[in-house]
Amino acid sequence: MDSSTHSFPKILVTGGAGFIGSHTVVSLIEAGFEPVIVDNFDNSEPSVLEGLRTILGREVTCYTVDCNDEAAMDEIFRKEALHGVIHFAAYKAVGESVEKPLKYYRNNLGSLWTLLGLMHQHGVAHLVFSSSCTVYGQPEQLPVTELTPRLPAESPYGNTKAMGEDIIRDSVRAKMPVKAISLRYFNPVGAHPSAVIGELPRGVPSNLVPFLTQAAAGLRDKLTVFGDDYNTPDGSCIRDFIHVMDLADAHVQALRLLDQQETSSFYDIFNVGTGQGVSVLELINTFEEATGVKLNYIIGPRRPGDVEQIYANVDKANTVLGWEAKRSLSESLSDAWRWQQKLQAK
Ligand code: WQD
Protein backbone atom coordinates (compact mmCIF):
# COMPACT_ATOMS: atom_id res chain seq x y z
CA MET A 1 0.00 0.00 0.00
CA ASP A 2 1.28 3.45 -0.77
CA SER A 3 1.71 5.87 2.12
CA SER A 4 -1.56 7.64 1.30
CA THR A 5 -3.53 4.48 1.99
CA HIS A 6 -1.24 2.76 4.52
CA SER A 7 -2.80 3.14 7.94
CA PHE A 8 -0.54 3.81 10.94
CA PRO A 9 -2.44 2.40 13.92
CA LYS A 10 -2.88 5.16 16.50
CA ILE A 11 -1.57 4.33 19.97
CA LEU A 12 -2.40 6.53 22.96
CA VAL A 13 0.82 6.81 25.00
CA THR A 14 -0.02 8.08 28.48
CA GLY A 15 3.04 9.55 30.18
CA GLY A 16 4.54 9.71 26.69
CA ALA A 17 6.82 12.64 27.60
CA GLY A 18 8.42 10.64 30.40
CA PHE A 19 11.66 8.65 30.33
CA ILE A 20 10.36 5.29 29.07
CA GLY A 21 7.35 6.83 27.33
CA SER A 22 9.38 9.17 25.11
CA HIS A 23 11.80 6.42 24.07
CA THR A 24 8.83 4.16 23.27
CA VAL A 25 7.34 6.92 21.07
CA VAL A 26 10.50 6.71 18.93
CA SER A 27 10.23 2.91 18.63
CA LEU A 28 6.52 3.13 17.82
CA ILE A 29 7.06 5.47 14.89
CA GLU A 30 9.98 3.42 13.61
CA ALA A 31 7.66 0.36 13.71
CA GLY A 32 4.87 2.05 11.74
CA PHE A 33 2.54 3.06 14.57
CA GLU A 34 1.19 6.59 15.13
CA PRO A 35 1.68 7.61 18.79
CA VAL A 36 -0.63 10.15 20.45
CA ILE A 37 0.96 11.44 23.65
CA VAL A 38 -1.04 12.33 26.76
CA ASP A 39 0.99 13.86 29.57
CA ASN A 40 0.18 16.29 32.40
CA PHE A 41 3.90 17.22 32.66
CA ASP A 42 3.72 16.65 36.40
CA ASN A 43 6.93 14.65 36.20
CA SER A 44 8.23 15.34 32.69
CA GLU A 45 9.42 18.30 30.60
CA PRO A 46 7.82 19.81 27.46
CA SER A 47 11.39 20.03 26.04
CA VAL A 48 11.14 16.27 25.47
CA LEU A 49 8.70 17.02 22.64
CA GLU A 50 11.40 19.13 20.97
CA GLY A 51 13.82 16.24 21.34
CA LEU A 52 11.34 13.89 19.71
CA ARG A 53 10.88 16.38 16.86
CA THR A 54 14.67 16.41 16.34
CA ILE A 55 15.01 12.62 16.33
CA LEU A 56 11.90 11.91 14.25
CA GLY A 57 11.93 14.91 11.93
CA ARG A 58 8.22 15.40 12.55
CA GLU A 59 5.71 16.48 15.17
CA VAL A 60 4.06 14.02 17.53
CA THR A 61 0.53 14.86 18.68
CA CYS A 62 0.54 15.65 22.39
CA TYR A 63 -2.33 16.52 24.73
CA THR A 64 -1.50 18.17 28.06
CA VAL A 65 -4.08 16.26 30.05
CA ASP A 66 -4.19 14.39 33.35
CA CYS A 67 -5.27 10.77 32.82
CA ASN A 68 -7.61 11.12 35.80
CA ASP A 69 -9.52 13.89 34.01
CA GLU A 70 -12.26 11.71 32.54
CA ALA A 71 -13.94 14.45 30.51
CA ALA A 72 -10.70 15.57 28.88
CA MET A 73 -9.67 11.98 28.23
CA ASP A 74 -13.09 11.25 26.74
CA GLU A 75 -12.52 14.15 24.32
CA ILE A 76 -9.26 12.56 23.16
CA PHE A 77 -10.92 9.18 22.67
CA ARG A 78 -13.64 10.88 20.60
CA LYS A 79 -11.16 12.85 18.51
CA GLU A 80 -8.52 10.17 17.88
CA ALA A 81 -9.49 6.85 16.31
CA LEU A 82 -7.31 4.83 18.67
CA HIS A 83 -6.08 1.31 17.97
CA GLY A 84 -4.58 0.82 21.42
CA VAL A 85 -3.16 2.32 24.59
CA ILE A 86 0.22 2.08 26.30
CA HIS A 87 -0.25 3.23 29.89
CA PHE A 88 2.95 4.63 31.42
CA ALA A 89 1.50 7.58 33.34
CA ALA A 90 2.01 7.00 37.07
CA TYR A 91 3.88 8.39 40.04
CA LYS A 92 6.94 6.20 40.51
CA ALA A 93 9.04 7.43 43.43
CA VAL A 94 9.21 4.48 45.80
CA GLY A 95 10.24 6.56 48.81
CA GLU A 96 7.59 9.24 48.27
CA SER A 97 4.91 6.57 47.94
CA VAL A 98 5.66 5.43 51.50
CA GLU A 99 5.19 9.00 52.79
CA LYS A 100 2.13 9.78 50.63
CA PRO A 101 0.32 6.48 49.92
CA LEU A 102 -3.05 8.02 49.10
CA LYS A 103 -1.48 10.26 46.43
CA TYR A 104 -0.13 7.11 44.77
CA TYR A 105 -3.25 4.95 45.05
CA ARG A 106 -5.45 7.78 43.84
CA ASN A 107 -3.31 8.71 40.87
CA ASN A 108 -1.93 5.39 39.72
CA LEU A 109 -5.11 3.33 40.14
CA GLY A 110 -7.52 6.15 39.30
CA SER A 111 -5.85 6.74 35.94
CA LEU A 112 -5.97 3.04 35.04
CA TRP A 113 -9.61 2.81 36.09
CA THR A 114 -10.50 5.87 33.99
CA LEU A 115 -8.62 4.51 30.98
CA LEU A 116 -10.23 1.06 31.11
CA GLY A 117 -13.69 2.65 31.32
CA LEU A 118 -13.06 4.87 28.29
CA MET A 119 -11.48 2.03 26.31
CA HIS A 120 -14.61 -0.04 26.90
CA GLN A 121 -16.90 2.87 26.04
CA HIS A 122 -15.04 3.69 22.81
CA GLY A 123 -14.27 0.12 21.73
CA VAL A 124 -10.48 0.46 22.05
CA ALA A 125 -9.36 -3.09 22.66
CA HIS A 126 -5.55 -3.13 23.06
CA LEU A 127 -3.70 -2.21 26.26
CA VAL A 128 -0.06 -2.48 27.28
CA PHE A 129 0.41 -1.78 30.98
CA SER A 130 3.64 -0.56 32.53
CA SER A 131 4.28 -2.84 35.49
CA SER A 132 7.44 -3.48 37.48
CA CYS A 133 9.65 -6.22 38.93
CA THR A 134 8.94 -4.57 42.25
CA VAL A 135 5.83 -6.78 42.43
CA TYR A 136 8.15 -9.71 43.24
CA GLY A 137 9.53 -8.11 46.41
CA GLN A 138 12.60 -10.15 47.45
CA PRO A 139 12.05 -13.39 45.51
CA GLU A 140 12.98 -16.74 47.09
CA GLN A 141 14.33 -18.07 43.81
CA LEU A 142 16.33 -16.34 41.08
CA PRO A 143 16.03 -15.55 38.27
CA VAL A 144 12.32 -14.73 38.65
CA THR A 145 9.83 -16.09 36.15
CA GLU A 146 6.34 -14.69 35.59
CA LEU A 147 5.04 -17.58 37.75
CA THR A 148 7.16 -16.47 40.72
CA PRO A 149 4.63 -15.53 43.38
CA ARG A 150 4.17 -11.81 43.85
CA LEU A 151 5.09 -10.84 47.38
CA PRO A 152 3.55 -7.97 49.33
CA ALA A 153 5.26 -5.06 47.63
CA GLU A 154 7.74 -3.15 49.78
CA SER A 155 5.99 0.13 48.92
CA PRO A 156 2.60 1.62 47.97
CA TYR A 157 4.18 2.34 44.57
CA GLY A 158 4.86 -1.36 44.11
CA ASN A 159 1.36 -2.15 45.36
CA THR A 160 -0.20 0.10 42.71
CA LYS A 161 1.61 -1.95 40.05
CA ALA A 162 0.41 -5.27 41.50
CA MET A 163 -3.14 -3.96 41.96
CA GLY A 164 -3.07 -2.50 38.45
CA GLU A 165 -2.27 -5.95 37.09
CA ASP A 166 -5.17 -7.40 39.11
CA ILE A 167 -7.63 -4.76 37.86
CA ILE A 168 -6.72 -5.63 34.27
CA ARG A 169 -6.80 -9.39 34.92
CA ASP A 170 -10.25 -9.18 36.56
CA SER A 171 -11.61 -7.00 33.73
CA VAL A 172 -10.47 -9.60 31.20
CA ARG A 173 -11.88 -12.43 33.34
CA ALA A 174 -15.21 -10.56 33.31
CA LYS A 175 -14.98 -10.80 29.53
CA MET A 176 -14.48 -7.08 29.02
CA PRO A 177 -13.49 -6.84 25.34
CA VAL A 178 -9.87 -5.95 26.04
CA LYS A 179 -6.61 -7.61 25.04
CA ALA A 180 -3.93 -6.64 27.51
CA ILE A 181 -0.29 -7.28 28.33
CA SER A 182 1.52 -6.22 31.49
CA LEU A 183 5.25 -5.68 31.08
CA ARG A 184 7.22 -6.07 34.31
CA TYR A 185 10.20 -3.76 33.85
CA PHE A 186 13.44 -4.46 35.63
CA ASN A 187 15.85 -1.51 35.89
CA PRO A 188 15.60 0.81 32.86
CA VAL A 189 18.85 2.69 32.19
CA GLY A 190 20.59 4.55 29.37
CA ALA A 191 19.30 6.99 26.77
CA HIS A 192 18.56 7.22 23.06
CA PRO A 193 21.94 6.95 21.23
CA SER A 194 21.38 10.42 19.74
CA ALA A 195 21.62 11.88 23.29
CA VAL A 196 18.67 14.09 22.35
CA ILE A 197 16.33 12.44 24.87
CA GLY A 198 17.13 10.61 28.11
CA GLU A 199 16.34 10.40 31.79
CA LEU A 200 15.41 13.74 33.42
CA PRO A 201 15.25 13.10 37.16
CA ARG A 202 13.91 16.04 39.18
CA GLY A 203 15.99 17.07 42.20
CA VAL A 204 18.39 14.54 43.68
CA PRO A 205 18.10 11.29 41.69
CA SER A 206 17.06 8.30 43.79
CA ASN A 207 17.97 5.84 41.02
CA LEU A 208 21.53 4.58 40.65
CA VAL A 209 22.49 5.49 37.08
CA PRO A 210 21.32 9.11 36.94
CA PHE A 211 22.99 9.77 40.31
CA LEU A 212 26.14 8.04 39.04
CA THR A 213 26.33 10.10 35.84
CA GLN A 214 25.72 13.32 37.79
CA ALA A 215 28.53 12.36 40.18
CA ALA A 216 30.80 11.55 37.23
CA ALA A 217 29.94 14.97 35.76
CA GLY A 218 30.88 16.64 39.04
CA LEU A 219 27.30 17.71 39.83
CA ARG A 220 27.34 15.48 42.93
CA ASP A 221 30.28 15.20 45.26
CA LYS A 222 30.32 11.41 45.15
CA LEU A 223 28.15 8.33 44.68
CA THR A 224 27.27 6.34 47.80
CA VAL A 225 26.94 2.60 47.28
CA PHE A 226 24.11 1.59 49.62
CA GLY A 227 25.73 -1.38 51.30
CA ASP A 228 28.39 -3.93 50.43
CA ASP A 229 27.49 -6.41 53.14
CA TYR A 230 24.77 -8.27 51.24
CA ASN A 231 24.96 -11.98 50.60
CA THR A 232 26.20 -11.48 47.02
CA PRO A 233 29.61 -12.16 45.41
CA ASP A 234 30.93 -8.62 45.95
CA GLY A 235 28.51 -7.68 48.75
CA SER A 236 26.57 -5.08 46.75
CA CYS A 237 22.99 -5.49 45.53
CA ILE A 238 22.25 -7.21 42.22
CA ARG A 239 19.80 -5.91 39.61
CA ASP A 240 18.85 -6.47 35.97
CA PHE A 241 19.74 -3.24 34.14
CA ILE A 242 18.05 -2.98 30.75
CA HIS A 243 18.64 -0.36 28.03
CA VAL A 244 15.60 1.91 27.75
CA MET A 245 15.55 1.36 23.95
CA ASP A 246 15.30 -2.41 24.45
CA LEU A 247 12.46 -1.73 26.83
CA ALA A 248 10.82 0.54 24.25
CA ASP A 249 11.08 -2.19 21.60
CA ALA A 250 9.34 -4.64 23.97
CA HIS A 251 6.25 -2.40 23.87
CA VAL A 252 6.14 -2.60 20.07
CA GLN A 253 6.36 -6.38 20.27
CA ALA A 254 3.57 -6.42 22.84
CA LEU A 255 1.27 -4.46 20.50
CA ARG A 256 2.10 -6.86 17.68
CA LEU A 257 1.31 -9.86 19.90
CA LEU A 258 -2.02 -8.30 20.86
CA ASP A 259 -2.83 -7.79 17.16
CA GLN A 260 -2.34 -11.51 16.62
CA GLN A 261 -4.92 -12.53 19.26
CA GLU A 262 -8.19 -13.84 17.80
CA THR A 263 -10.14 -13.81 21.08
CA SER A 264 -11.79 -10.58 22.21
CA SER A 265 -10.43 -10.91 25.75
CA PHE A 266 -6.81 -11.74 26.39
CA TYR A 267 -4.27 -11.09 29.15
CA ASP A 268 -0.62 -12.00 29.63
CA ILE A 269 2.38 -10.86 31.65
CA PHE A 270 6.07 -10.66 30.63
CA ASN A 271 9.31 -9.97 32.45
CA VAL A 272 11.26 -7.38 30.50
CA GLY A 273 14.91 -7.53 31.50
CA THR A 274 18.23 -8.76 30.13
CA GLY A 275 18.21 -11.97 32.19
CA GLN A 276 21.61 -10.97 33.60
CA GLY A 277 22.14 -10.02 37.24
CA VAL A 278 24.70 -7.24 37.67
CA SER A 279 25.89 -5.85 41.00
CA VAL A 280 26.14 -2.16 41.81
CA LEU A 281 29.94 -2.42 42.03
CA GLU A 282 30.09 -4.30 38.71
CA LEU A 283 28.00 -1.55 37.13
CA ILE A 284 30.41 1.08 38.44
CA ASN A 285 33.35 -0.84 36.94
CA THR A 286 31.51 -1.21 33.63
CA PHE A 287 30.83 2.54 33.59
CA GLU A 288 34.50 3.38 34.22
CA GLU A 289 35.66 0.95 31.51
CA ALA A 290 33.05 2.12 28.99
CA THR A 291 33.66 5.84 29.47
CA GLY A 292 37.22 6.07 30.79
CA VAL A 293 35.80 8.26 33.58
CA LYS A 294 36.92 7.47 37.12
CA LEU A 295 33.99 7.56 39.52
CA ASN A 296 34.29 8.98 43.04
CA TYR A 297 32.24 6.69 45.29
CA ILE A 298 32.10 5.47 48.86
CA ILE A 299 30.41 2.53 50.54
CA GLY A 300 27.56 3.64 52.82
CA PRO A 301 24.86 1.94 54.85
CA ARG A 302 22.11 -0.14 53.27
CA ARG A 303 19.05 1.75 51.97
CA PRO A 304 15.87 0.63 53.78
CA GLY A 305 13.49 -1.27 51.50
CA ASP A 306 16.13 -2.40 49.00
CA VAL A 307 15.87 -6.01 47.92
CA GLU A 308 19.22 -7.83 47.94
CA GLN A 309 19.02 -9.19 44.43
CA ILE A 310 16.55 -9.56 41.62
CA TYR A 311 16.97 -10.34 37.95
CA ALA A 312 14.71 -11.79 35.29
CA ASN A 313 14.17 -15.11 33.63
CA VAL A 314 13.30 -13.80 30.15
CA ASP A 315 12.51 -17.13 28.43
CA LYS A 316 8.82 -16.23 28.06
CA ALA A 317 9.56 -12.82 26.57
CA ASN A 318 12.04 -14.43 24.18
CA THR A 319 9.74 -17.23 23.02
CA VAL A 320 6.18 -15.92 23.35
CA LEU A 321 6.67 -12.15 22.98
CA GLY A 322 9.38 -12.69 20.36
CA TRP A 323 11.60 -10.08 22.01
CA GLU A 324 15.03 -10.04 23.62
CA ALA A 325 17.34 -7.34 24.92
CA LYS A 326 20.01 -6.56 22.34
CA ARG A 327 22.07 -3.79 23.95
CA SER A 328 24.87 -4.39 26.46
CA LEU A 329 25.24 -2.73 29.84
CA SER A 330 28.36 -1.03 28.52
CA GLU A 331 26.26 0.51 25.70
CA SER A 332 23.58 1.57 28.19
CA LEU A 333 26.12 3.34 30.37
CA SER A 334 27.91 4.97 27.43
CA ASP A 335 24.55 6.27 26.19
CA ALA A 336 23.66 7.49 29.70
CA TRP A 337 27.00 9.28 29.95
CA ARG A 338 26.66 10.91 26.52
CA TRP A 339 23.20 12.14 27.53
CA GLN A 340 24.56 13.53 30.81
CA GLN A 341 27.28 15.43 28.93
CA LYS A 342 24.68 16.79 26.50
CA LEU A 343 22.61 18.02 29.45
CA GLN A 344 25.66 19.87 30.79
CA ALA A 345 26.25 21.48 27.42
CA LYS A 346 22.69 22.96 27.34
C1 WQD B 1 19.38 0.13 42.18
C2 WQD B 1 20.48 -0.32 43.12
C3 WQD B 1 20.40 0.61 45.32
C4 WQD B 1 21.21 4.74 44.24
C5 WQD B 1 13.54 1.24 41.62
C6 WQD B 1 12.08 0.90 41.75
C7 WQD B 1 11.64 0.15 40.53
C8 WQD B 1 11.95 0.99 39.33
C9 WQD B 1 13.45 1.26 39.25
C10 WQD B 1 10.12 2.43 38.70
C11 WQD B 1 19.98 -0.60 44.52
C12 WQD B 1 21.65 1.06 44.58
C13 WQD B 1 20.96 3.38 44.16
C14 WQD B 1 22.40 5.21 44.85
C15 WQD B 1 23.04 2.95 45.28
N1 WQD B 1 11.25 2.21 39.38
N2 WQD B 1 21.88 2.51 44.68
N3 WQD B 1 23.28 4.29 45.35
O1 WQD B 1 15.55 0.44 43.76
O2 WQD B 1 16.28 -1.35 42.08
O3 WQD B 1 14.27 0.05 41.59
O4 WQD B 1 13.78 1.97 40.45
O5 WQD B 1 9.55 1.70 37.96
O6 WQD B 1 10.25 -0.09 40.61
O7 WQD B 1 11.92 0.05 42.86
O8 WQD B 1 16.51 1.08 41.49
O9 WQD B 1 18.30 2.61 40.79
O10 WQD B 1 17.06 3.09 42.97
O11 WQD B 1 18.66 1.18 42.85
O12 WQD B 1 23.86 2.13 45.74
O13 WQD B 1 22.67 6.44 44.96
O14 WQD B 1 21.43 0.74 43.23
O15 WQD B 1 20.72 0.28 46.66
O16 WQD B 1 20.67 -1.72 45.03
P1 WQD B 1 15.69 -0.01 42.35
P2 WQD B 1 17.63 2.09 42.02
Automatic annotation (TrEMBL):
Entry keywords, A to Z: Carbohydrate metabolism, Isomerase, NAD
InterPro entries with a match to the protein in the record: NAD(P)-bd_dom, NAD(P)-bd_dom_sf, UDP_G4E
GO MF term (any one): UDP-glucose 4-epimerase activity
Pfam families noted in UniProt: GDP_Man_Dehyd
This protein's pathway: Carbohydrate metabolism; galactose metabolism
Keyword Kinase listed: no
Cofactor(s) for this UniProt protein: NAD(+)
NAD(P)-binding domain mapped to chain residues: 12-333
The UniProt record lists the keyword Isomerase: yes
EC numbers for this chain: 5.1.3.2
Catalysed reaction, written as an equation: UDP-alpha-D-glucose = UDP-alpha-D-galactose
Annotated Gene Ontology cellular component terms: cytosol
GO BP terms: galactose metabolic process
CDD domains xrefs: UDP_G4E_1_SDR_e
Top-rank lineage group of the source organism: Bacteria
Self-association and partners: Homodimer.
Family statement: Belongs to the NAD(P)-dependent epimerase/dehydratase family.
Protein name according to UniProt: UDP-glucose 4-epimerase
